[in-house]
Amino acid sequence: MRLFVAVNVDPALQAPLAAVQANLKTTAAPVSWVKPENLHFTLKFLGEVPELRLPALQETFRSSVAGIDRFTLSLAGLGTFPPRGRPRVIWVGVAQGVEEMRRLQGRIDDTLLPLGFGREARPFQPHLTLGRVRDVGRLDALLTYLRGAEIGQVGQMQVRCVDLMRSKLHPAGAVYTRVESVPLSEEI
């Protein structure tokens, strides 16, 4: 099964994020837009994992999150990967909660390493993928829009849990299902 570790977006933020996507869609750029109900922050992509490894993975996943306190994330700003040249990914950034997300991701990365899940080569930059570019040759209107876009705070959410997610690829897009959800600690 194809798995990843994520913080899923609070359902209350789906409509404001869909509005941001709707504005971007006016450029008619060839982008595959992420469905609002699928929006999430990927903390670690695990790839194909044999089902027989799932119990050990779940146990280690639970321990990776143990003792981490809940925190607030605020979403603001638009960007692309790569940041220069022809973009492949359009994202909304994190204004508040960046360090907390980095600590959480680092802890998950460190804890899963002994199970054979290597570290990401690039430094972790918390972001919410809104869409993936299908054709880099027809992006002039999108790039012009992004250069002039002033996207302030889109919203805030409390990060209360981290999810182990399964991804099934279909022609109409990926379908995500929660395998396990591990709550973060409540601050005392």
Question: Could you characterize what this model shows?
Answer:
By secondary structure, the chain is α+β, with helices and mostly antiparallel strands. The chain has one domain (2-183): Alpha-Beta Complex (Cyclic Phosphodiesterase, Chain: A), CATH 3.90.1140. Helix content is 26%, strand content 37%. It contains four helices and nine strands; from the N terminus they run E-H-E-E-H-E-E-H-E-H-E-E-E. It has helices at residues 14-25, 54-65, 98-112, 140-148; strands at 2-8, 31-33, 40-48, 71-81, 89-96, 127-133, 153-159, 161-168, 175-183. The strands form two sheets. Strands 2-6-5-4-7 form a five-stranded antiparallel β-sheet, with helices on both faces. Strands 3-1-8-9 form a four-stranded antiparallel β-sheet, with helices on one face. Helix 2 packs antiparallel against helix 3 (98-112).
In CATH, what is the class? Alpha Beta
Report the oligomer.
single chain
Give the low-pLDDT segments: none
Radius of gyration: 17 Å
Major β-sheet strand ordering: 2-6-5-4-7
Secondary structure elements and their pairing?
Blueprint: E1 2-8, H1 14-25, E2 31-33, E3 40-48, H2 54-65, E4 71-81, E5 89-96, H3 98-112, E6 127-133, H4 140-148, E7 153-159, E8 161-168, E9 175-183
Antiparallel strand pairs: 1-3, 1-8, 2-6, 4-5, 4-7, 5-6, 8-9
For the structure shown, list the relevant keywords.
9 strands, globular, five-stranded antiparallel sheet, alpha+beta, Cyclic Phosphodiesterase, Chain: A, 188 residues
Quick summary:
The protein contains 4 helices and 9 strands, in the order βαββαββαβαβββ. The chain has 188 residues and is of the alpha+beta class.
